[in-house]
Amino acid sequence: MSEFKHLVLVKFKEEVVVEDVLKGMEKLVSEMDTVKSFVWGKDIESDEMLRQGFTHAFLMTFSSKEDFTAFASHPKHLEFSSTFSTAIQNAVLLDFPAITVKSSAN
Amino acid sequence: MSEFKHLVLVKFKEEVVVEDVLKGMEKLVSEMDTVKSFVWGKDIESDEMLRQGFTHAFLMTFSSKEDFTAFASHPKHLEFSSTFSTAIQNAVLLDFPAITVKSSAN
Question: Where is the Stress-response A/B barrel domain (chains A, B) (predicted)?
């Protein structure tokens, strides 16, 4: 069974303190055993036109689609999502089984 | 030094054979030692509204920003990008130093 990934691209509202949102996200992830790994980043290199206003990417990895579903419907996630949605101006979400072509073990 | 990630979200044109594009991408990645890992996926779960028309995510990881820069400016990448751009209806690119909050080693 392949790993399952939850990817979120975000543009925050101007008045939002991104560090505070990140703290909430880190707390959520640390409390949820279903989240296998969590990596994020702020774009520093892409062309303004090519990133279409998005500034941050958040990527969570789960052992299975079932673990993702359990996470997505968990009260702690729902509570965080509710707060999170008030902080964002725009977001894209993609949820997909991960197909690994090349592994970082190389 | 943190790893560097190159993230591409795509909606392909309707007439495009996605498998052919993927073959070209896999060939490129296999030939480029600067690409440390490569994972992709096709959304199967996100709400249509939340994914804003995007269907595929491609994520490449590099050991450093320098490796990414070398990859991005490599003739093989430029040649692929030229072909790739004719296959897509919409794309978002984000390039960022990866901040790992939780590791899959857990």
Answer: 4-96
ipTM of this complex prediction, to 2 decimal places: 0.91
Helix axes B75-87, B18-31, angle to 10 degrees: 170
Please answer whether residues B84 and B20 qualify as being in contact, where contact means their C-beta atoms are separated by less than 8 angstroms: no
Q: Which of A76-85, A87-96, B41-50, B57-66 has the lowest mean pLDDT?
A: B41-50
Whole-model pTM: value is 0.93
Q: Which two tokens stand for residue A59?
A: 């990527």
Contact A37, B92 (CB under 8 A): no
Domains and CATH numbers, chain B: 12-97 (3.30.70.100)
| A contacts of B26 (beta carbons < 8 Å) | 101
Residue A52 C-alpha, separation from nearest chain B C-alpha, in angstroms: 6
Question: Which tokens in the block code for residue B18?
Answer: 């996605």
Distance between CA B58 and CA A98 in Å, rounded? 10
Model pLDDT for residues A91-102, shown as the tens digit of each residue: 999 999 999 999
- The whole-angstrom separation of Cα B79 and Cα A60 is 31
